[in-house]
Amino acid sequence: MTPVHFSFTSAFILGLMGLTFHRTHLLSALLCLEGMMLSLFIALALWALQFEATSFSTAPLLLLAFSACEASTGLALLVATARTHGTDRLQNLNLLQC
């Protein structure tokens, strides 16, 4: 495994571990998701450049577009949660109670 592949793999795994183990605030969960998406974007872009596949060059841009939609949805949920509950702590959220 090259150092570049190791760095992207470790960045993705660190984001996943942060999402799994440090779920106190909604903002930290969103930041971990964005870190995972950024590592996936860079890995896909380098993979398309490495294999010189012109047909696969749109995949990183599609992933980036979906990542931007995910980020905007997450921030909208963060604002709505902060307005209704007064905090963004995940322990205070109950999906069964609206």
UniProtKB/TrEMBL annotation:
Transmembrane spans: 6-22, 29-49, 61-80
Recorded topology in the membrane: Multi-pass membrane protein
Xref: Gene3D superfamilies: 1.10.287.3510
Any one cellular-component term (Gene Ontology): mitochondrial inner membrane
Keywords: Electron transport, Membrane, Mitochondrion, Mitochondrion inner membrane, NAD, Respiratory chain, Translocase, Transmembrane, Transmembrane helix, Transport, Ubiquinone
Record's catalysed reaction(s): a ubiquinone + NADH + 5 H(+)(in) = a ubiquinol + NAD(+) + 4 H(+)(out)
EC number, as in UniProt: 7.1.1.2
Keyword Nuclease: no
GO molecular function: NADH dehydrogenase (ubiquinone) activity; oxidoreductase activity, acting on NAD(P)H
InterPro entries, per database record: NADH_UbQ_OxRdtase_chain4L/K (IPR001133), NUOK/Mnh_C1-like (IPR039428)
GO biological process, one term: ATP synthesis coupled electron transport
Cell location: Mitochondrion inner membrane; Mitochondrion membrane
Database matches in Pfam families: Oxidored_q2
Function, as annotated: Core subunit of the mitochondrial membrane respiratory chain NADH dehydrogenase (Complex I) which catalyzes electron transfer from NADH through the respiratory chain, using ubiquinone as an electron acceptor. Part of the enzyme membrane arm which is embedded in the lipid bilayer and involved in proton translocation.
Family that this chain belongs to: Belongs to the complex I subunit 4L family.
Protein name: NADH-ubiquinone oxidoreductase chain 4L
